[in-house]
């Protein structure tokens, strides 16, 4: 294969990703999925020892919870709301006429109670708050879901629909910060065990507009978010394949999450961008998993 | 637990499903997910012998492909289009003001190029057509994805976001019909092997409006779709946990799918409603998997 081709084209040609005609929306081959399954098993073997509570939310969340999260303040351009046809038979006739004439038929679609999940942990905070105060020692949760971000791109690392695996810690600030620190070390070792070069840096999130600069400066100055970066795309900087977020009391205050002592809980999350990690593995070790280095195959397939 | 409570409330109380505040949108516990994982492994052991090509699409599909599929003619009320904020900074200020005042802020959201997948196989047909004529013997594909249907309900078997596993056969009419017949027998045996009572009947799809009655009659009179039904909800008829669809040349004509001889390909699909099957298992064998009958545990966990 022509190694000068962009990575996305090589992934299409190898059949690992499947073009759907929309940038950032791809089918995955069985081989691609197997890499993600095996990498998740390695995550399990690291994170399972802490006995997290596993919860799997679907790829959509309660719109009221989304509205309460503050996401539309920071990243309005990335969110996806789900809309449906709520009309009568006559409206349906107009809609079909509109479609036949190739006109925009989506204007009459009405917002449902569901929005696409922007990050795997967003549905978790209101769910756990509803249970009452956290138990002694706080909480630890294991999540994974498809997430949506409206940012069409030909960089395969920037998908519109992708999976995020997360661990979320809730409790006292010291416990939450220690959890994040621990995973920064675990994540680095994990990536080294599959032969990927990493660096960790403060995050560079795409906050919206001029007001967003304030959020970004705050996030960077207070070291609220770190990213584990791996070079994947040739013509861009390294790709954030994990992130380590300390939310302080943001979600605790928003949802009334409290520790057993009645203090506002602090929260942190560690996220794995599963498609990005798979892409990093294909980029560094080649598009044929059978030719990956023996130690990498050993870590993933045992 | 009070067995008189509705199944959904018992599932919430047992922690198997997690209330999100929206009917038909639930979190799943680790135990619930494990049942689905194990059931899928049993499906694999049956369907894997035919060596299908595995493809995994994300829960959204190309809107143009969705429009071409004809879904909006039959089930406009169930579809979900994805909309995003595409405005400038001033628009953002208005949007946030709207949200703060508790007004509807979704009116300015614009349709993206993506809609939620209504059935796991919808993204497949245009994808395979792009490859050119089918190879000798036709094609066989293994799919699974989250699907969306806008039908809020307190029946746990009627979720808005749920997973569908599918096998899809493309080729000559005789091969396609034989595939469907084969899976009607396999499906019946499969459900019996996990201790579930089944019947098979012609389908009863919720086609929209008066014009939809014609589609429904056509579907029933021509035996185009069968369902494998299992009693799950106490106050409703049995639940369709699998379906067996013969599309004749509908998708073949729509997407230009051809056999190696240049004939329009026929297609059929077999779908498993994974959450519905898990719910049937919990309903019939109890909410604690450790107390399920030994032969059921043996089939699922080996």
Automatic annotation (TrEMBL), chains A, B:
<dbReference type="InterPro" id="IPR045864">
    <property type="entry name" value="aa-tRNA-synth_II/BPL/LPL"/>
</dbReference>
<dbReference type="GO" id="GO:0016874">
    <property type="term" value="F:ligase activity"/>
</dbReference>
<keyword id="KW-0436">Ligase</keyword>
<protein>
    <submittedName>
        <fullName>Amino acid--[acyl-carrier-protein] ligase</fullName>
        <ecNumber>6.2.1.n2</ecNumber>
    </submittedName>
</protein>
């Amino acid at each position: 294969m022509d190694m000068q081709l962009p990575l996305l084209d090589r992934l299409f040609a190898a059949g690992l990703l499947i073009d759907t005609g929309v940038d950032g929306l791809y089918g995955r081959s069985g081989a691609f999925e197997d890499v993600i399954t095996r990498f998740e098993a390695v995550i399990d073997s690291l994170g399972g020892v802490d006995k997290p509570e596993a919860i799997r939310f679907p790829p959509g969340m309660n719109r009221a919870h989304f509205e309460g999260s503050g996401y539309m303040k920071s990243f309005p351009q990335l969110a996806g709301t789900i809309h449906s046809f709520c009309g009568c038979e006559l409206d349906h006739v107009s809609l079909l006429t509109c479609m036949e004439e190739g006109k925009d038929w989506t204007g009459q679609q009405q917002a449902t109670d569901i929005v696409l999940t922007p990050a795997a942990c967003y549905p978790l905070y209101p769910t756990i708050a509803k249970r009452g105060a956290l138990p002694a020692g706080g909480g630890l949760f294991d999540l994974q879901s498809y997430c949506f971000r409206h940012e069409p791109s030909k960089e395969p690392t920037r998908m519109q629909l992708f999976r995020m695996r997360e661990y979320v810690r809730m409790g006292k600030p010291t416990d939450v910060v220690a959890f994040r620190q621990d995973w920064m070390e675990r994540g680095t070792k994990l990536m080294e065990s599959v032969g990927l070069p990493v660096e960790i840096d403060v995050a560079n999130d795409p906050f919206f507009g001029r007001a967003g600069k304030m959020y970004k400066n705050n996030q960077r100055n207070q070291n609220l978010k770190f990213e584990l970066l791996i070079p994947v795309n040739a013509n861009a900087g390294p790709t954030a394949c994990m992130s380590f977020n300390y939310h302080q009391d943001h979600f605790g205050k928003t949802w009334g999450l409290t520790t057993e002592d009645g203090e506002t809980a602090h929260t942190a999350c560690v996220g794995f961008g599963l498609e990005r990690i798979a892409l990093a593995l294909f980029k560094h070790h080649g598009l044929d998993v059978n030719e990956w280095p023996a130690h990498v195959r050993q870590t993933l397939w045992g």
